[in-house]
Amino acid sequence: MIISKNLCIQNIGIILLWGDDLFLREYILPYSDSKYYTYDEISQLSSEDLRIARNEIFARYGYIFSDEGLKEHFANCSWYVPTGMSSEEIESSLNDFEKQNLQLIKQCENE
Fold it and tell me: Quick one: how far is CA 45 from the chain centroid?
């Protein structure tokens, strides 16, 4: 199996065997909930990676996506657990790291 930053691992056994490093590869921005990313870090991402990174923040809270591509992408991530929280509920739950990173991602998407 080829592993890239755009591919979520489907075999949890591999995750457990290889540990956190492989688990982190399931994310575009693995620390968007605990680190302030810089413009230089975010602006290097492709438009598709920006889209996924923005939605990772919502996926961490279990948002159920209507977009088939996002639904499929996150369904293949071992950490994703759909909860049914609405985007409004999630937005009111975001921490400061997530809020700032979300704003920066949106800024880069609009450039």
Answer: 13
Amino acid sitting at position 97 = F
CB 10 within 8 A of CB 72: no
Residues 65 and 69: their CA atoms lie apart, in Å, by 9
Per-residue pLDDT tens over the stretch 47-98: 999 999 999 999 999 999 999 999 999 999 989 999 989 999 999 999 999 9
Rounded Cα–Cα distance for residues 60 and 81 (Å): 8
DSSP class of 29: S
> Could you tell me the pTM of the whole model?
0.78
DSSP per residue over 33-88, as a string?
TTS---HHHHHTS-HHHHHHHHHHHHHTTTPPPSSHHHHHHHHT-TT-------HH
Q: Where do we find the tokens 């293949």?
A: 76
Q: Is the dihedral of CA 100, 104, 109, 110 positive or negative?
A: positive
d(CA 18, CA 66): 32
